[in-house]
């Protein structure tokens, strides 16, 4: 049985309901929270009460007490900062697993405002996205986004620079530069590379929070444990829990906390 932890700062009932839906004979969910829990535990859903659920969740993950972790409704800044410190990682690389309203799954990166700002960072993210796609059964083709169409060259220097970067990245990664056509990229390719973390975050939020798309979470791909990041605005966390359970089988080594 796989043991997946999920953190809770707020919306405990919603997280508990998602945990019950995701849990099975092969998947036990442990809910990490500082709140008093009056709910009855089951064999599939347990509770870990701690004054600091962030540290409790991540320390248990790194000790091997749980096989994988989902951020849930824990605060992003504090949780990712502690994860960086505990794994001695200077920065975290995340790749979002998304689904269009029509059911087409694709990977999107970068999705963090401090990620993917240089060509080398985007090449690294692309390589990791290709590997992740192969592991979870998503098409490994790559579409590169930029700030306009090639016919827009000369209209704006910022757009010109973005188009040039898209061409270079396509050459370096073997992907296809689709310009600003996100609708083509998401439907045609299994991996979509945003021009930067800001636009990637906007694409994610527009699809999932304003549109009818779905998120399966954003695995951190440059650490040796399974950690799936999520948005506190997500409708539910069932998909992220199942994704974490699937990914934890791929982890061969454990990092010990400092």
Give a written overview of the molecule.
The protein is of the alpha/beta class and 258 residues long. The chain folds into two domains: 2-92 and 223-248, Rossmann fold; 96-214, Isopropylmalate Dehydrogenase. The chain has helices at 12-22, 53-63, 76-87, 119-136, 157-173, 182-188, 197-210, 238-248, and strands spanning 2-8, 27-33, 45-49, 68-70, 96-99, 105-109, 142-145, 176-179, 191-193, 214-215, 218-219, 226-229. The strands form two sheets. A six-stranded mixed sheet has the order 3-2-1-4-12-11, with helices on both faces. The chain has a six-stranded mixed sheet with strand order 8-7-9-6-5-10, with helices on both faces. It is elongated.
Question: Notable features of this structure?
Answer:
Rossmann fold, Isopropylmalate Dehydrogenase, six-stranded mixed β-sheet, alpha/beta, elongated, 2 domains, disordered C terminus, 258 residues, 19% strand
């Amino acid at each position: 049985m796989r043991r997946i932890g999920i953190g809770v700062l707020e919306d405990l009932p919603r997280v508990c309901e998602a945990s019950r839906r995701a849990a099975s004979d092969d998947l036990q969910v442990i809910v990490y929270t500082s709140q008093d829990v009056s709910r009855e535990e089951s064999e599939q859903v347990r509770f870990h009460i701690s004054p600091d659920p962030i540290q409790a969740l991540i320390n248990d993950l790194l000790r091997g007490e749980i096989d994988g972790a989902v951020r849930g409704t824990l605060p992003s800044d504090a949780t990712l900062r502690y994860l960086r410190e505990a794994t001695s990682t200077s920065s975290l690389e995340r790749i979002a697993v998304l689904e269009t309203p029509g059911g087409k799954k694709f990977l999107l990166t970068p999705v963090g405002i401090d990620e993917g700002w240089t060509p080398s960072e985007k090449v690294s993210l692309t390589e990791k996205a290709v590997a992740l796609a192969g592991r979870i059964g998503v098409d490994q083709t790559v579409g590169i986004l930029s700030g306009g169409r090639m016919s827009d060259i000369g209209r704006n220097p910022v757009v010109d620079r973005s188009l040039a970067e898209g061409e270079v990245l396509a050459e370096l990664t073997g992907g296809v530069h689709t310009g600003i056509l996100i609708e083509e990229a998401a439907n045609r390719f299994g991996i979509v590379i945003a021009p930067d973390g800001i636009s990637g975050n906007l694409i994610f939020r527009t699809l999932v929070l304003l549109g009818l798309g779905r998120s399966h979470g954003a695995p951190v791909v440059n650490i040796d444990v399974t950690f799936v990041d999520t948005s506190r605005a997500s409708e539910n966390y069932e998909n992220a829990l199942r994704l974490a359970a699937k990914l934890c089988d791929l982890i061969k080594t454990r990092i010990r906390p400092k």
